[in-house]
Structures are given as C-alpha cells and as structure tokens.
Design goal:
By secondary structure, the protein is α/β, with parallel strands linked by helices. Helices cover 46% and strands 12% of the residues. The protein contains nine helices and eight strands. The strands form two sheets. The chain has a five-stranded parallel sheet with strand order 2-1-3-7-8, with helices on both faces. Helix 2 crosses helix 3. The longest helix has 21 residues, at 93-113.
Length: 305
C-alpha cells in the first residue's frame, strides 16, 4: 500500500562527487542541507554573508562581491549592516567592515571554483528602508516605521534570478546553478501572504529554470506533498525537525549525488560516529580517532574533515 505521494525528481547532471565544490546560498533551509554535505566531507561553503531570505538582497551581495566592490562605512550602521544577516555584526565599524569584505572575498573565491551553486529562496516579501531607499536583507530589529514592506512581482524576482545566474556564469561559466524553494513558512507575514510569496517565488524559479542553464530541486514539494504531517516539524510547527530534514536529505542524496560517492560517504559517517563517541578511555579513543582520520584521508584524499 502506497501511503505517500512521492515527488518525482530529475537526477542532477552533472551529479556531485568528491571532486565537486559546492556553494549553498539563501534561506535557512539551505543551511540544513549544506551542513549535511559538510558533515559528509564534501567541499562545501555555506552562506558567507549569513542567511539571506529574499532574491533581491542575494543578487546585490553577489553583484557587489564578484565585481570587486569593497564595502565601506556608508554600508554600516552602528553595529550592523542592512545588507547582511546579524551573523556579521560587530562591536565597531572596523570589525563589521572586516566581516563584510572577508565574506565578499570568500564568496568570490568559492564561486570561482564552484561546480554547483545551490540557491534557496525563502520569501518574496521585502522591506525597503524609506530614508535610504534600500531593500534590506535584514531589518536588525529596527523600528517598523523605518521601512515600507512590499511584495516583489514575478517579473522583479525573475530579473533577480536571471541576474544571479549571469553574475555567477561570468565568473564561472560551467558552474551548475540549482534553485530550491524553502518549505519553511513565513507565517509572521500572514498565512495568505506567505502563500502569495511562495507562489511568486515558485513561478519565477520555474520560468528561469526553463529559459536558463539552471536546475531545480523540489524541496518545497517534498515537504508539502510527501511529508505533510506535523510530526516532521519542530516545536514552532514551522521549521522541519531532524526527522523531516533527514527525509529531505535522503531524497537529495538520491537525486544529486553520484553513486560512486556513496561508499566514501559511509566511510566518513563511520569516522564521524567514532569522533562523536563518548569513551571511558579518552587516550585510547583519541588514538583510534587519529588512526581513523589518517586511514580515511589516505584512502579518500578528497574528503574534507
């Protein structure tokens, strides 16, 4: 008896193996899958500028970084920048500038060597700073009166996505760009508002995937159509719990990772479990870890531990 409605997924070409270099950008959902890839020892970089929810802000950060435009004091408020997530906050302007420009350099370096770039979009709702006339990546808990809230149109989103692909391919022409739509609901915007946002993102992604050299992984459909059960969600009933993430991860592995990488992943998993073990003999355990680490890298030198 079939108790779910499995979402068909087109295998990714080219598939990912341990020669691949993978960059994950976008909303918090991309961090979940990115963390799984890093755990398995793939060459992985996740959100140098922190979580970015909307496509416009992501486009701006890519454009600024890959054009070599340095961030300056005009991009900074007292302890933060409206262009990025609070992960890059600092106690001084100098510290924030260092964080911003270091992130920009890292993003550029990663794209130059990327084989695959995964971009997860979270929302089409954006906040525009009224005085600065700037769409912000994060409001940093500033007064609501400072911003106008608006919903990006399908054309605006599509233009952003096309620009993102062009910016990436200008630096790395053969990088495979794969879009996903985050299944995390932004219900603080409202239930109907969240649906409108996701619908616009979904249509924009599909139109760009059809017309550009880009791929699509149906994370949204897997969660909404295969899982659709609150047992796969955390206590907030919005974000997926570990079981939900693991189920999406299993579908991800089957569709994007080359089967030749699977034995290596098992070897990495065995090593990770050894490292996580809580021993009674700490000294002996450390010897076992060192031996396992050496043997794994000798057999699979491309693994990142």
């Amino acid at each position: 008896m079939q108790l779910t409605t499995p979402v068909p997924i087109q295998p990714l070409q080219p598939a990912i193996d341990y020669n691949s270099s993978i960059l994950f950008l976008g909303s918090c959902f991309t961090e979940n899958i990115g963390a799984k890839m890093a755990y398995q020892g793939f060459k992985t970089c996740i959100n140098p500028f922190g979580i970015v929810f909307n496509p416009h802000s992501l486009m701006v950060l890519l454009e600024r970084s890959l054009s070599g435009t340095m961030f300056s004091e005009k991009d900074i408020e007292s302890h933060f920048s409206y262009l990025v997530h609070s992960d890059l906050n600092g106690t001084s302007i100098e510290a924030i500038l260092t964080n911003l420009n270091t992130a920009g350099e890292l993003l550029t370096a990663q794209i130059k060597k990327a084989s695959h770039v995964f971009i997860t979009l979270g929302t089409a709702w954006v906040y525009e700073h009224i005085e600065k006339q700037l769409i912000v990546a994060n409001c940093h808990k500033q007064p609501q009166a400072l911003f106008d809230k608006k919903l990006l149109s399908i054309n605006e989103i599509s233009d952003c996505l096309q620009s993102i692909i062009s910016i990436i391919h200008k630096v790395k022409p053969n990088a495979k760009v794969i879009f996903t739509l985050s299944p995390v609901r932004h219900i603080k915007d409202g239930f109907t508002e969240n649906q409108r946002s996701k619908a616009r993102l979904f249509e924009s992604i599909q139109s760009v995937v059809e017309s550009k050299n880009a791929g699509y992984f149906p994370a949204y459909e897997i969660v909404m159509d295969e899982l659709r059960d609150y047992r796969f969600y955390g206590r907030d009933m919005i974000h997926l719990n570990e079981i939900g993430i693991e189920l999406v991860w299993e579908r991800f592995c089957k569709s994007v990772i080359n089967t030749t990488a699977l034995p290596v992943m098992k070897a990495v998993e065995k090593h990770r479990r050894l490292v996580a073990h809580k021993p009674t003999d700490i000294e002996l355990h450390e010897e076992h870890i060192a031996k396992s680490h050496l043997e794994l890298l000798q057999k699979h030198p491309l693994v990142q531990l």
